[in-house]
């Protein structure tokens, strides 16, 4: 799940939150300065990719209003050189407006995230809501403010303000799409194993090499970057996918800031729009594929969980009657083909009703779990054990003669008799009674008849005094 959880407001949580905000502010300023150095156009604080928008969202989603001053300060100091804040009060005001617009965008994006996606960016179906409500709407508001601010300050002509709004909309939205999923995924789960990182690094280096060659040698390679990143989205862990995507998109923007390369046309505005459209669509497609893989993993895990619950007893974790009967049927078919005997046993916990009535059902459940654990530990991996219902269990011993199966049942009976289950200040002792039947090739029978023979032996064991194993 791609969600940022709020830090606790306890003293320890407050210190952790303060550290988080300080690191976020430094990262915001560093990414802004880095972006202006590599991605900037005129004026020099305007870039084709604004990664700080994603950092600002992560900070506000984590800390709420406490993050606003940090975002404002980091944006102010990052924008100041490009806006010329040292020259006049007007430039200082323009810088404050730019920082305020960045802070407003981060705060609004965090508010939209909490309102529309309270569980975070967790499924493919939530991606388009994330794009519309968290990316485009907040950045549109800030883009309009920034473009008007630049036009009023004389940095751009009013006629260029509308293209600037579009460019800022793409640049800021890209920053959110690239940074927020990465930060959220990193905080949500364990980092990939070193082996997974190595494979992801190779794919990332291939994508970066394609980007460089597309701008220097063969422009068509730019279109092979998408399937390369899609391969990683299908195979890699979330953190590795988002790191590779952010590095690749940043590299393309850095190359395009110097030379538009594959996106070069006569009209510079149109060329930038083509570039940003390519970057935006690439990012959305790769994110969508990663989220789709995540959806499939969740569905597969849920299906496996349901299958396990359908075939296993919820209390003891043993197989249940529903799954034991087909396994026993298959064992009969296998024994018929191979001409070998095998044994089946049913067993009961002695005086289990008295345990429940005396100590309560919680202690009764403890007894069931303890007996199941002893059965599971004492049997071979090829043996099949199930809780058939209540206090009754069944065991199948494949390819096992009657004598060996009887010895195994006696060991089980002795082991269970050594159990002591705590019940308040007392220790509850447990015994079992069992009945065993043998399927023989010369006397074949079905599942129901075999279990009925074992049950008849179990009833004899109870009549003869319990705590014993009886065979037919």
UniProtKB/TrEMBL annotation:
Subcellular location: Cell membrane
Membrane topology according to the record: Multi-pass membrane protein
Record key words, sorted: Cell membrane, Membrane, Transmembrane, Transmembrane helix
SUPFAM superfamilies recorded: Nucleotide cyclase
Statement: the UniProt record of this protein carries the keyword Cell inner membrane: no
EC id: 2.7.7.65
Name of a matching Pfam family: GGDEF
GO molecular function terms noted in the UniProt entry: diguanylate cyclase activity
Enzyme class of the recorded protein, top EC level: transferase
Gene Ontology cellular component annotations, sorted alphabetically: plasma membrane
Principal subcellular localization: membrane
TM annotation in the entry: 20-41, 48-68, 88-113, 125-158, 164-189, 201-234, 240-261, 273-291
UniProt domain GGDEF: residue ranges: 340-472
BP GO annotations: cell adhesion involved in single-species biofilm formation; negative regulation of bacterial-type flagellum-dependent cell motility
Superkingdom as given in the UniProt entry: Bacteria
Entries under InterPro entries matching the protein: Diguanylate_Cyclase, GGDEF_dom, MASE1, Nucleotide_cyclase, Rev_trsase/Diguanyl_cyclase
NCBIfam families to which the protein is assigned, alphabetical: GGDEF
Protein name: diguanylate cyclase
């Amino acid at each position: 799940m791609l969600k940022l959880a709020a830090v606790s407001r306890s003293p320890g949580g407050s210190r952790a939150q303060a550290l988080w905000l300080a690191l976020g502010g430094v990262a915001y300023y560093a990414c802004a300065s880095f972006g202006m150095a590599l991605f900037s156009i005129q004026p020099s604080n305007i870039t084709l990719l604004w990664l700080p928008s994603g950092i600002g969202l992560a900070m506000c989603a984590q800390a709420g209003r406490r993050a606003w001053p940090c975002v404002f300060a980091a944006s102010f100091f990052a924008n100041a050189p490009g806006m010329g804040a040292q020259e006049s009060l007007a430039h200082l005001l323009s810088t404050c407006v730019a920082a305020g617009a960045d802070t407003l965008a981060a705060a609004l994006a965090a508010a939209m995230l909490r309102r529309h996606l309270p569980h975070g960016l967790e499924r493919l179906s939530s991606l388009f809501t994330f794009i519309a409500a968290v990316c485009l709407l907040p950045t549109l508001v800030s883009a309009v403010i920034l473009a008007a601010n630049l036009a009023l300050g004389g940095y751009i002509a009013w006629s260029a303000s509308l293209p600037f709004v579009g460019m800022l909309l793409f640049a800021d939205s890209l920053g959110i799409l690239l940074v927020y999923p990465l930060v959220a995924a990193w905080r949500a789960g364990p980092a990939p194993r070193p082996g997974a990182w190595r494979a992801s690094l190779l794919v990332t280096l291939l994508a970066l090499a394609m980007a460089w060659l597309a701008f220097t040698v063969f422009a068509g390679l730019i279109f092979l970057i998408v399937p390369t990143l899609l391969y990683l989205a299908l195979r890699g862990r979330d953190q590795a996918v988002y790191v590779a995507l952010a590095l690749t998109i940043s590299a393309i923007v850095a190359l395009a800031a110097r030379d538009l390369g594959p996106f070069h046309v006569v009209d510079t505005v149109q060329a930038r729009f083509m570039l940003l459209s390519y970057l935006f669509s690439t990012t959305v497609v790769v994110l969508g594929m990663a989220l789709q893989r995540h959806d499939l993993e969740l569905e597969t895990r849920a299906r496996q969980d349901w299958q396990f619950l359908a075939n296993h007893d919820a209390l003891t974790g043993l197989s249940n009657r529903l799954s034991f009967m087909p396994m026993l049927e298959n064992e009969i078919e296998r024994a018929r083909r191979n001409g070998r005997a095998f044994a089946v046993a049913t067993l009961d916990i002695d005086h289990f009703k008295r345990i429940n009535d005396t100590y309560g059902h919680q202690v009764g459940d403890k007894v069931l779990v303890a007996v199941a654990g002893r059965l599971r530990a004492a049997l071979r991996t090829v043996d099949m054990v199930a809780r058939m219902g209540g206090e009754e269990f069944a065991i199948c011993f494949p390819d096992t003669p009657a004598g060996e199966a009887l010895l195994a049942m006696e060991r089980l009976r002795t082991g269970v008799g050594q159990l002591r289950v705590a019940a308040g200040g007392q220790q509850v002792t447990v015994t079992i009674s069992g009945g065993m039947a043998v399927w023989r090739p010369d006397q074949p029978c079905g599942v129901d008849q075999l279990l009925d023979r074992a049950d008849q032996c179990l009833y004899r064991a109870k009549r003869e005094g319990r705590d014993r194993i009886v065979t037919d």
